[in-house]
């Protein structure tokens, strides 16, 4: 069980929260394997199907390495069912004060959906500082989030709704975006057809779009040969591989599980932040030079 205060950090490291509509608990194990294989450790199971509580229960009891939460929660009895099943966070499409108060009273992390200043301020008045921005694309997308940034400096957003592989990079480049939510990697159709390999491929592809590259890990060991080959095929091989990334900070956070560390003295700062840095990963002899 992850502490409520740590969920935000976990979202930041994962960068992507798959929003999942699933019809049968029998698909849970295949889904968990695909998410894990793709490198994701968070799942939002929406209360849009009757199977949701059972799926959450299965994740919580058999796939503890994946932090499971409940999405599309609009009623208190859904909060109860989700928590009983083992959900570690609650996501709502809108800002419903009674749902938020109910969750806060139970000391559970809640992320209500907002898409304008009035709703943001109502959520802030409740002490919330991480909010879902929904529906992101039709509510002004990146432009709206940029406008919120100067006014609501203490708020982090989870944009969801219309996020795809082609725009996730842009959203994650914003400093007030904690992570993005999206359903495209685990679509209902893929689940229905039990295409778990395809789900894993989409997860990897999304993570590659987020970071600029994808570390390949097999049995806890970096598959260096494959890693180097894929980077060489991408046209970047040498003593040090240069990779452009939307956020150095996020990439470092996402690589922390591989024990990546910053090469001392390699940091280049511009204005307030880090714009270049070299990192080393134990087991990988080639350094990676990240450029933001
Ligand atoms: C949600 O439930 O948060 C949204 O429906 C997800 O939006 P998407 O399908 O556009 O990713």
What does this structure look like?
α2 runs parallel beside α10 (196-211). This protein has helices at 7-14, 28-38, 52-62, 76-85, 97-105, 117-125, 141-151, 168-172, 188-192, 196-211, 224-233, 248-254, and strands spanning 16-20, 42-46, 67-71, 89-91, 109-111, 113-114, 130-133, 156-159, 180-182, 217-218, 221-222, 240-244, 261-262, 268-270, 273-281, 284-291. By secondary structure, it is of the alpha/beta class. The chain has two domains: 4-211, TIM Barrel (Alpha-Beta Barrel); 217-291, no CATH class. The strands form five sheets. Strands 12, 13, 14, 15 and 16 form a five-stranded mixed β-sheet that branches. The chain has a four-stranded parallel β-sheet with strand order 3-2-1-9. Strands 6-7-8 form a three-stranded parallel β-sheet. Residues 19, 46, 71-72, 134, 160-163, 181-184 line the site of 3-phosphoglyceric acid.
Summarize the structure.
It contains twelve helices and 16 strands. It is α/β, with parallel strands linked by helices. 3-phosphoglyceric acid is lined by residues 19, 46, 71-72, 134, 160-163, 181-184.
């Amino acid at each position: 069980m992850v502490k409520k205060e740590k969920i935000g950090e976990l979202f930041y490291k994962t960068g992507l929260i798959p929003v999942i509509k699933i019809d049968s608990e029998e698909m849970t194990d295949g889904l968990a394997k695909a998410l894990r294989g793709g490198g994701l450790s968070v799942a939002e199971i929406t209360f849009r199907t009757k199977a949701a509580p059972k799926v959450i229960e299965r994740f919580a009891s058999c796939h503890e390495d994946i932090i499971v939460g409940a999405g599309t929660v609009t009623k208190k009895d859904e909060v109860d069912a989700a928590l009983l099943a083992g959900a570690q966070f609650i996501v709502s499409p809108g800002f419903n004060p009674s749902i938020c108060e109910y969750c806060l009273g139970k000391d559970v992390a809640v992320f209500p959906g907002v898409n304008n200043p009035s709703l943001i301020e109502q959520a802030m008045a409740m002490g919330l500082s991480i909010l879902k921005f929904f529906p992101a694309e039709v509510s002004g997308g990146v432009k709206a989030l940029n406008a919120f940034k100067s006014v609501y400096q203490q708020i982090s957003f989870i944009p969801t709704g219309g996020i795809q592989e082609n725009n996730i990079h842009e959203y994650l480049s914003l400093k007030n975006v904690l992570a993005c939510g999206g359903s495209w990697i685990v679509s209902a159709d893929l689940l229905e057809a039990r295409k778990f390999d395809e789900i894993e491929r989409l997860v990897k592809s999304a993570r590659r779009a987020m970071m600029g590259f994808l570390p390949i890990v097999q049995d806890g060991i970096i598959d260096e040969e494959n890693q180097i080959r894929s980077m060489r095929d991408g046209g970047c091989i040498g003593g040090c591989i240069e990779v452009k990334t939307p956020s150095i900070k996020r990439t470092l956070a996402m690589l922390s599980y591989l024990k990546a560390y910053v090469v001392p003295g390699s940091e280049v700062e511009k204005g307030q932040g880090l714009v270049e840095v070299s990192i080393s990963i134990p087991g990988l002899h080639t350094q990676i030079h990240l450029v933001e």
